[in-house]
TrEMBL record:
The chain crosses the membrane at residues 15-35, 42-61, 95-114, 190-216, 237-258, 270-298, 310-328. The keyword Manganese does not apply. It is a multi-pass membrane protein. The lineage of its organism: Bacteria, Pseudomonadati, Pseudomonadota, Alphaproteobacteria, Rhodobacterales. Keywords: Amino-acid transport, Cell membrane, Membrane, Transmembrane, Transmembrane helix, Transport. It comes from the Bacteria. This is Branched-chain amino acid ABC transporter permease. It is found in: Cell membrane. The keyword Isomerase does not apply. InterPro entries: ABC_transp_permease, BCAA_transport_permease. Belongs to the binding-protein-dependent transport system permease family. LivHM subfamily. It comes from Aliiroseovarius salicola.
Length: 343
């Protein structure tokens, strides 16, 4: 039982990232009908927003500390972050320590602007083009973004620290009545799951309980009719593209302490996220989220040693095997609308 619970936790952790990226992909496909292969790059940019803010907060200047001397008796040069000189040592150190959560606020306007620029500058010209054209142009855009990040940040992963309050692990098993040290799980991974659940809930609440969201959902169902009512549905869809980009960026920001950001992390998640979208059902927001968590849990169980001993490499292909089985029996996916991907 303890092994099962641990794998479920691991699966929810992976599924959180899959679900958030897939949710953004589905928002774009459902509103604009665009297959956006640059969405993984938005996840990567979000992670590097966390890296950038941590570096900005860590900028420092050198001063001579008379209390510290080298072997010749000269005062040593000490680096002092600007943030500490402005807010004091304790407050400054605390701000630096909490740079990743603060990067949420830092990244939102950046990701909204990037999403708006992508949609207005490039993708709007491909609305009526075949999906193959959309895939080619967005995939090319993803490669351009990837190379820009590689040029400015280098090819090596960049360690990004979580706040010290969330370092270490929680004895999760004790809370459930197990013996101590049976189910140990990192605090930050639990925070990531809770954060993902909050973002997903916020997106669904926005779409279901606000006038703006209701109009967008109506436009997803029948764009022409909504346009005939005098509503500028295109402008609303552009805003939704920016929101989808922000969701992917937030997923990347909070994922930075889990997996050190690198220039190809967007591509690593992109293919898996598209599989999640297809399994859940193209255009189905609930399907994307459900499939993200489902496939994350399946992948986690497939990574167990005794399963890999029986079927070597199953953890690398389990998601694709499930996708094949579902698409053979139900081409529109688990929660896709009838007729989508079935003709």
């Amino acid at each position: 039982m303890d092994g099962i619970l641990l794998q479920i936790l691991n699966g929810l952790d992976k599924g959180s990232a899959y679900a958030m990226i897939a949710l953004g992909l589905t928002l774009i496909f459902g509103t604009l009908g665009v297959v956006n292969f640059a969405h993984g790059a938005l996840f990567m940019i979000g992670a590097f927003c966390a890296v950038s803010l941590q570096r900005l907060l860590g900028l420092s200047f050198e001063t001579l500390d008379p209390t510290k001397k080298d072997f010749l008796g000269n005062p040593l040069k000490v680096k002092t972050p600007y943030i500490e000189s402005w807010f004091g040592p304790e407050m400054g150190a605390s701000i630096i320590d909490w740079s990743v959560p603060l990067a949420i606020l830092f990244s939102i306007p950046i990701m909204l602007f990037v999403g708006w620029a992508m949609e207005r500058g490039l993708i709007k010209h491909f609305y009526k083009r075949p999906h193959a054209d959309q895939i080619l142009v967005t995939f090319g855009l993803a490669i351009v973004m990837q190379e820009i990040i590689k040029h400015y940040y280098g090819a090596n992963p960049i360690p990004t620290s979580a706040p010290s309050a969330f370092k270490g692990s929680l004895d999760f098993g004790v809370m459930l009545g197990f013996d101590p040290n049976v189910i140990i799980y990192p605090y930050w991974r639990l925070v990531y799951f809770a954060f993902s659940a909050a973002v997903i809930t916020a997106v669904f609440s926005f779409l279901n309980f606000t006038t703006f969201g209701m109009v967008v959902r109506a436009g997803m169902a029948d764009r022409e009719t909504v346009g005939l009512l005098g509503i500028n549905i295109d402008r609303r869809f552009t805003i939704m593209f920016g929101i989808a980009a922000a969701v992917a960026g937030l997923a990347g920001v909070m994922y930075a302490p889990i997996n050190s950001p690198n220039y190809h992390m967007g591509m690593d998640f992109l293919v898996l996220s598209f599989v999640v979208v297809v399994v859940g059902g193209m255009g189905s927001l609930r399907g994307a989220v459900a499939a993200g968590f489902l496939l994350g849990v399946l992948e986690s169980f497939a990574s167990m040693n005794w399963i890999k001993d029986v079927i070597p490499g199953i953890d690398q292909i389990i998601i694709y095997l499930v996708a094949i089985l579902i698409l053979l029996t139900r081409p529109r996916g688990l929660m896709g609308r009838k007729g989508v991907m079935e003709d």
